[in-house]
Amino acid sequence: xxxxxxxxxxxxxxxxxxxxxxxxxxxxxxxxxxxxxxxxxxxxxxxxxxxxxxxxxxxxxxxxxxxxxxxxxxxxxxxxxxxxxxxxxxxxxxxxxxxxxxxxxxxxxxxxxxxxxxxxxxxxxxxxxxxxxxxxxxxxxxxxxxxxxxxxxxxxxxxxxxxxxxxxxxxxxxxxxxxxxxxxxxxxxxxxxxxxxxxxxxxxxxxxxxxxxxxxxxxxxxxxxxxxxxxxxxxxxxxxxxxxxxxxxxxxxxxxxxxxxxxxxxxxxxxxxxxxxxxxxxxxxxxxxxxxxxxxxxxxxxxxxxxxxxxxxxxxxxxxxxxxxxxxxxxxxxxxxxxxxxxxxxxxxxxxxxxxxxxxxxxxxxxxxxxxxxxxxxxxxxxxxxxxxxxxxxxxxxxxxxxxxxxxxxxxxxxxxxxxxxxxxxxxxxxxxxxxxxxxxxxxxxxxxxxxxxxxxx
Length: 458
Fold this sequence. Notes:
The protein has one domain (29-405). It contains 19 helices and no strands. It has helices at residues 10-21, 29-43, 49-67, 75-86, 94-116, 120-144, 146-149, 167-186, 193-209, 213-232, 237-256, 258-268, 278-291, 308-317, 327-360, 368-380, 390-402, 430-439, 442-448. The termini are close together. Mean pLDDT is 82; it is low at 1-7, 19-23, 413-429 and 435-451.
């Protein structure tokens, strides 16, 4: 005779049924490839990082072309990459410029294609996985090998560096990691929110240990903005519209008084009159900015000992610096006012497209990440390399690919060419399941998915 379950077991049985019905998120191979590319770019610079990142970008592009249809690169991104390629014609060091341009082109197209072949949830999981690996390895070096995982210079001796070449480089990646995990922890449709909150705390602890005033200030401000925007998107539309107008006016006012704002913030962070040497760097750049204000000196042709101009700037400042410590000046040095304007068009396009969806209440909480991350890059660029680094540019390209153009429906995954399991690590139906997890709430998933039949126990 079949036995009936006891009256105390319905809840446990229901939980078991839910676990059997809703499969755990799977990992398509495209997400693995994207995570490897972003992880290598985030860890750079390291020994032979240029050829490694370029090789991964080429492999990623070839895989994306074979795996599915090519996504459309936004016209602002195309214009910026095209102009960067044109600057090779007058580059100060042509060989260095050619390598940088090829890396920029292949990595930009590869990231755009891979993002177009994944759901948004899979894109964020790929980025988060890459950041988790970097943070875990950094903490292991920090405690296990203090000579490699901590700052050895007298200035900020013992600060957190991890696997990164310098604490400021690590602080930028850690700030981006905090925002990524915070978004995943507060997004109502993403799984494992508690785990994401824990990783956000771990990344923030590493950021504090890195002793970067700029990284800490910009990350805290951006995190507060993300939490506020997550809350505001639920308010009535007229309130969102009013607040958006106020936000635009506030940003415009800050841009007008940008120099005073930088000095005020640097004073709050306890920096000296030279902004820890930054004003000396910016003064050494000034003559070369004036020589080629519109065209620049060639994308990727500076910040190397092979460049005569860079060696001259080092002699003026009396120390060697790896970049301009200001992303806006760095863009002007490499690609002139034209390149900087095109790069700002990329950022403005992301903010306009994502901001329009936030104000209109469309697409849920998905536009929050591109909006806040772009603001994070723009703020960070005042004092550091930010969006002029390899990972900064790729994050910007990712945000652009995640936000649909005006008039387009909310972004969904593209159908791959292959059918049976190729491009998937755990099974042939992973894209269908992840698309359902993204587009439907959990209750709708449980209601619409077929439930497995259960035989009564004999």
